[in-house]
Amino acid sequence: MSEKNHRVSRRQFLTYTLTGVGGFMAAGMLAPMVRMALDPALEASGGAEFVSVGLSEDDLSEEPQRVDFNVEIVDGWYTSEQSRSAWVFLYEGEILALSPTCTHLGCTVNFGTNEEYPDQFFCPCHFGRFERDGTNIPGTPPTRPLDVYDVEVRDGMIYLGQINQRG
Ligand code: FES
């Protein structure tokens, strides 16, 4: 009698445990969906709010200027700060903000540092080169253009948003 009770209680224990684990996993999968349904803004931001880079429209010229700034990355309830950089300048009358990360293997590109190509972005790691608008130059290692930031002007100040891949 006591042996039988014992066996049943073990089975019950297993049932409860498996139900609990299954429920926990289901909750883990459903929670992000519910969160996005309740707050679409969370998804839209994707952790890439527009951030002031401390430059005004009047500070801009056709000469690329490097700016360094911090962005807050929101992942669920966790917020962290990441540093970012951009080359910001006027190109054909538009504000262009390029990522300085080389699209070959991720080194940092600089503008005008190769004496032979003073009007190009240059990556010293493997001599990658990009046109002023970020287009990769055929015959150099990078196979796609530099990424570009979304740009907004608010009250005359430059704000940068998410980084977009091109090409
Ligand atoms: S990382 Fe820039 S050329 Fe290779």
UniProtKB/TrEMBL annotation:
Function per UniProt: Component of the menaquinol:cytochrome c reductase complex. The Rieske protein is a high potential 2Fe-2S protein.
Family to which this protein belongs: Belongs to the Rieske iron-sulfur protein family.
Family annotation (Pfam families): Rieske
Single GO MF annotation: metal ion binding
SUPFAM superfamilies: ISP domain
Domain Rieske, chain residue ranges per copy: 92-160
Transmembrane segments: 12-34
Record key words, sorted: 2Fe-2S, Disulfide bond, Electron transport, Iron, Iron-sulfur, Membrane, Metal-binding, Oxidoreductase, Transmembrane, Transmembrane helix, Transport
Subunit structure: The main subunits of the menaquinol:cytochrome c complex are a Rieske-type iron-sulfur protein (QcrA), a cytochrome b (QcrB) and a cytochrome c (QcrC).
Source species: Alkalicoccus urumqiensis
Protein name: Menaquinol:cytochrome c reductase iron-sulfur subunit
CDD domains cross-referenced by the UniProt entry: Rieske
